[in-house]
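Problem: given the chain below (104 residues), write out its structure.
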Amino acid sequence: MTTWTVVLLASGLAYATKLAGYLVPESWVEGPRRSRVLTLLPVALLSGLVAIQTFGGSGGSLHVDARLAAVGAAIVLLLLRANFLVVVIGAAVVAGVLRAIGWG
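Solution.
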């Protein structure tokens, strides 16, 4: 398979997934419990992705490097109610500086 074939197939799958979300009957998502679960599901998935990308090492081992410090900086900036762009840039700067000095 060529790279373009994979890109086109992934794009088609992403579009089909998005379309399927609009075609789901409303009765499947109504109700307070289902609504709460569906509201919190993206938060749980994103948290899992952040944890895997922050701590994930090769071979299933725990790996701590500049990414952990960058996430910590982002948390501090979020607690200080900084603008989202400031949070992203601040975390990137922390990771970049730590990697430049050889940590991570």
